[in-house]
Amino acid sequence: MGALDRKVLRDFGRLWAQALAIALVMACGVASLVTFIGAARNLDETRAAYYERYRFGDIFASLKRAPANVAGKITAIDGVAAVEARVRDLVILDITGMREPASGMAISLPDFREPSVNRPFLRDGRLPHPGNPDEVAVTEAFAKAHGFSPGARFQAVLNGTKRTLTISGVVLSPEFIYALGPGDIMPDDKRFGILFFSQRALAGLLDLEGAFNDVSVRLLKGANEQAVLDALDRILEVYGGAGAIPRKDQQSHAFLDSELEQLRSIAGIIPPIFLAVSAFLINMILSRLIALEREQIGLFKAVGYSSTAVAAHYIKLVVAISALGIAGGFALGTWLGNGMFRLYGDFFHFPFLIFRTHADVYLIAAAVSLLAGVAGGLNAVWKTVRLAPAVAMRPPSPTVYRKLAPERLGLLKPFSRLTVMGLRHLMRHPVRSGLTALGTSFAVGLLVISMFFADITNALTAWLYDQHQRQSATLIFSEEQGPGALQAVRRLPGVLDAEPMRSVSALLRHAHHERRMSLTAATPDAQLVRVVDDAGRPVFISKTGLTLTERAAAILEARRGDLIDVQLLQGKRRSARLPVAEIVPSYFGYAVFMHADALDRLAGEGPRIGGANLMVDAHQVDALYAAIKQTPQIGSLTLQDASRAKFDETLEQNIVIATTVYVMLAVIVAFGVVYNAARIQLSERARELASLRVLGFTEREVYSVLLAELGAIVMIAQPLGWLIGLGLCWLVVNGFDSDLFRMPFVIEADTFAIASLVTLAAVAVSCIIIWQRILNLDLIRVLKTRE
Amino acid sequence: MATPVFEARNVTKVYRTGDVEVHALRGIDATLYEGELTVMLGPSGSGKSTFLNIIGGLDTATSGQVRFRDWDLTDASSRELTRFRRDHVGFVFQFYNLIPSLTARENVSLVTEISPRPMKPADALDMVDLGDRMDHFPAQLSGGEQQRVAIARAIAKQPEVLLCDEPTGALDSETGVTVLKALEHINAELDTSTAIITHNVGIQQMAHRVFSFLDGRIAETHVNDRRVAAESLHW
Ligand SMILES: Nc1ncnc2c1ncn2[C@@H]1O[C@H](COP(=O)(O)OP(=O)(O)OP(=O)(O)O)[C@@H](O)[C@H]1O
Ligand SMILES: [Mg+2]
């Protein structure tokens, strides 16, 4: 090993604390890259493999009823590889030990053969026997939530009759990686499950013998998806087809897509912050080192080392720090990525998880980080290259200080000389001070983001449950009924109030945009489900036009006053051209509201209701459940309260995890930046500070000089950090924006305050470490040497 | 006879670096008197700075006793030593040690802000003949001017003692004399007990008393019957 290389090791050994702080920041960057990109890739690949092996459909359609031979016509559509015609219905479940009713999606599996589309994965037991109408295979998550294994029994209401079902097997399905119950916004495996029956059994139970009401299609490679969708719609139109949807709109798939998109968008936001901060820190430490070693550099050059050799010497130090950061980042990233992927495995229902370590992700993370590090060091190293040996061996020309602008106005008069010292030093290095403030502000920003998640959750829950959907339960009828049905509902035990609800599937067209959406009937005087703006104020519902949510308007690229072609996809399938009367905010999905009377008029079947929103007396809930379980003709009950509880619980879990991680990351950034800044100040000003001690200033007073400067930087960093936080939140809100879900942009004042307090705590820790160094300042040694 | 300011009895100082012990002071007995100007001579490494730092409260002796007037410095805590330096001692070093981010006047007021009976910073700078350069930063002053600012800073709090470690070490003869004149003036005018370490044998002529250090001891103490004015010194 050459003498210069030994010097690298010594430098590293001497600067280890600072090097470690920088490496830690870099490790966060590497780890977040590896984690987010790795998790996204693994999730994507697992899903793709699952889809391929279990033949997930490309197109899905539901209809009222079509004879079995129609499936042949669908198979004949150009580009179709396979068709699976099925029977499917939402059913109410009555499970022993569960107070509230649960619901299930009953789906048929073909008898005596494997389905050619959407094959279930058999985890345990066997598929239901065609000869036994009371056998079902249930999804694994549902079975787990109830502790069911093959042989277990529960009751279900099918087509108005209650039956006792026996579980023959436990399965998973590529259609339900993410399974959302009716009326829910978060999956609840206890209250919703998928039940697979044999075709013969389910068709018999639902009076659909020799017919089907649901179809999934797999396409040939290179098929024209839109053409198949259109052809399918044409075929199914007469059978009450509700409009075929492509895979990208299939609920489970779309949800996974949005999750992947979020991961990727976060991967574009978080890691660059860390890498930029670590590059800056490397620049700071290297600049100081090179300033200190100016004369040594002169000497190296004078004795014949080339500029390149000297430059390479310092780059090696950067590489050493980066290597430490990258290694740490790999370890942390692998661990976090694994953990995160496992969380996904719990939340999404996969039969298997393909966890691969993607060498290229690691390579790219390493390369990018190393590049950031070297880029950070480059400008400092460039100075060594330019330095002529003779110049280097002379001491640098003294730093010229200036009085600050506010001083001329007498603004700094009340401050002591010590404070003025601190502030002048700060202003002497405006770029470095600015970057230090910026680095610190990223910590504040990260904290703002982390708590922003809690803020939006609170805002969302408040908006959704306190303003928009205030019912405690929703009753969905098995069939649409006349308005008189509401009276019957009002008479159910425990029902304090009931308001009608109706939702009709329709195809909306504007310009070249076309999308299947649900038209939800809105009544202006409704107290339970209200159409409200983002402040929770009820919106006027036009009797003639459509009230679009922002997302629906965006999908159709429609503005107020634009005319939309509406074609109902059920009943008489009537069409109309309606103006957009109002656009209202929405955070979940893309609802379209229409005045109830207008919807009735358009549908042309007289006043109809599809169900009722209920206000329920909490003390009589059990009686209501019992009544509904007993009169299964009524339909299915979904519980807003249970849905809200699940929503809170799920989000709370996620938020606790996310906040913990972000706080950790932010503390590392704040600590890394402030500690390095303080160490460098201490190194630059050791002589000054020792002089002060000699003059009789106490340790505390000397410390205050450092704190004045650090304090000013940290103070500047706060508002800057809030701004950065706002910007990051904006990026995140945009990154999370999908058809399924949109985040409101709400940040509580507390969030800013807490972000600053946590940052200040991290700063305080570095200040305590620096205090130790002040106590150990060697007064005499400093005085013996010249500057 | 004059009253003593500092009394050192059998002071030793041992530096330990690993296994190596360096005996910097091997038993110093010395007395410095009120109002006197003392010069300390001796070869490099003989312990002058070590001794000055100990009586100035920057360092502590390994054994022996040091008194400042009625005050025993031997067992003083770091906090007490800071207090001692702050209230009683002015230091001047070879390398000025000014605060680069403060102007001449501010460097002086740095000290006057924390001392119980300060002069006006401007008066202190006038005493070293720098009244017209008060608002310059150290980088804008010559070495001699910087050293005079350092002296002004040291005397501005009207210390009882002024300790100078090679104050002319970095200066040429002419500038050195200006600095010495300033010290002489202050000693006479303010009656500040002053100790000056120097390698310049000529300077001893301006002293009341001269200590010659050798190998960690004071080999000889000499009292000048007739002092020479700093103005007439040259080297
Ligand atoms: N921190 C230290 N560690 C070890 N040895 C030291 C230390 N400080 C001083 N010494 C040693 O103590 C002895 C006396 O040093 P001191 O600085 O007092 O000498 P000096 O008389 O002031 O010399 P000079 O005229 O060169 O300034 C020297 O041998 C020196 O090497
Ligand atoms: Mg010395």
Structure description:
The complex is a heterodimer of chains A (787) and B (235). Chain A is of the alpha+beta class and 787 residues long. Chain A has three domains: 65-246, no CATH class; 409-472 and 639-787, no CATH class; 473-638, no CATH class. A six-stranded mixed beta barrel of chain A has the order 3-4-9-6-8-7. In chain A, strands 14-15-19-16-18-17 form a six-stranded mixed beta barrel. A four-stranded antiparallel beta sheet of chain A has the order 2-10-1-11. In chain A, strand 17 and strand 18 form a beta hairpin. The longest helix of chain A is centred in the last third of the chain and has 55 residues, at 640-694. Chain B is of the alpha/beta class. Chain B has a single domain (4-232), classed as Rossmann fold, CATH 3.40.50. Chain B is 28% helix and 29% strand. In chain B, helix 3 packs across helix 4, helix 3 (104-112) packs parallel to helix 5 and helix 4 crosses helix 5. The two termini of chain B are 33 Å apart. The mean pLDDT of chain B is 90. Classes of the chains: A alpha+beta (787), B alpha/beta (235). The A-B interface holds A 398-401, 403, 416-418, 420-421, 424-425, 428, 687-688, 690-699, 701, 779-780, 783-787 and B 49, 53, 58-59, 79, 82-87, 89, 91, 93, 95, 97-103, 106, 109-111, 113-115, 137-140, 153, 165, 170. The complex binds adenosine-5'-triphosphate and magnesium ion (MG). Residues 15, 17, 22, 24, 42, 44-50 of chain B line the site of adenosine-5'-triphosphate.
